[in-house]
Amino acid sequence: MKAQGAVIHEVGGQWKVEELELDDPQDHEVLVQVMASGLCHSDDHFVTGDLAVTLPMVGGHEGAGIVVKVGSKVSRVKVGDHVSTLFIPACGVCRFCARGQSYICNNGAGMEHGLGMDGTPRFHIADSGKGIGGVTRLGTFANYLVCHETQTVKLPDDIPFDVACLVSCGVATGWGASVYGGNVRAGDVVMVMGVGGVGMNAVQGARHAGADHVIVVEPVEWKRKAALDFGATEAFASVDAARDRINALTNGQGVDAAIITVGRVDGDIIGEAFSVTGKAGATILASVGSFEPHIAASPQDFTNFAKRIQGVLYGLCNPVLDIPRLLQMYRDGRLKLDELITRRYDINEVNEGFADMHAGKNIRGVLIHKH
């Protein structure tokens, strides 16, 4: 069938809207009419080369839509279901899924190529017939996609698609970074570095978990102010500016959890967060960035103060469980999702959306597909 999507052809290039041909779903696959997709910073990392993938590729992994066709052996969803896409499959039976770690499901292997689990493409450029992948085997910047059923979670029909798409990545990642990665508890002091589409949810997660103080570090002034509405207790332009307040709150010992959700991370930023992490505390890394094998942290601090650095993928969430849970919080008025969306874009405005992200204009931009 025919589809249309935004494709990145080379590192440093621009997203190009292409006419596409899309294969029918195989036995365990579903065809999804994509209604909305978040403009996640991770997709921009494919453009900058911070994340190495096989190009060209259809962009987008943070999606929500409607199942319009299913393969002969699909059992998780049916035609007509509203679904959220999962950028990591959740097979439920591999070693990691079986022990509650579906955020590192074994079927995530090879997703940097964007091909189906059988190693063949589902998207084809219409003019040439060339087969190409979709980001994390999805490609939510296209108005239709085919994916494995284990990359879908059924949604309640009353949840708006523009809200639902955000929960599939940015919300779960940020919220889980605090709740699961940082193991935030009542009375804790937490610092969140960077409050975009992931960081704002780390703020919400920290407050849900009971933190007494949630200190935001964010260079963009209007985002610092917005963070207060999401549950931050204080906001500063830099870690150095926040350091005196952190020392005052913690008797000079440092925060219980320092959560890194900046747009692009490097070893110096990790070291800066680690420097204000307290005894038995954790520096939580939820950002993507430099491949340089360097972290500016003293080995003595790990040992003498029992500190740790914890990497976080998908917020350490189990999305089949946690996405419905987060949406129920939204329904109950305990999780802000509508307020995350700064602007909505159409398919021809994808490059503008990412330019706005780099300019600090958005918490999260959302691509709305027209059907």
- The CATH architecture of the largest domain can be named as Alpha-Beta Complex
Structural class of the secondary elements?
Answer: alpha/beta
What count of structural domains? 2
CATH topology of the largest domain: Quinone Oxidoreductase, Chain A, domain 1
Give the percentage of residues in beta strands. Answer: 25-35%
How would you describe this structure in keywords?
2 domains; alpha/beta; Quinone Oxidoreductase, Chain A, domain 1; 10 helices; Rossmann fold; 371 residues
Would you kindly provide a written description of the structure presented here, covering whatever features stand out?
- The protein is globular and about 65 Å long.
- The model has no long low-confidence stretch (mean pLDDT 97).
- Strand 12 (213-217), helix 5 and strand 13 (234-236) form a beta-alpha-beta unit.
- It folds into two domains: 2-155 and 337-368, Quinone Oxidoreductase, Chain A, domain 1; 174-312, Rossmann fold (3-Layer(aba) Sandwich).
- It starts with a strand and ends with a strand.
- It is α/β, with parallel strands linked by helices and 371 residues long.
- The relative contact order is 0.16.
- The protein contains ten helices and 18 strands.
- Helices cover 28% and strands 26% of the residues.
- One of its GO terms (biological process) is formaldehyde catabolic process.
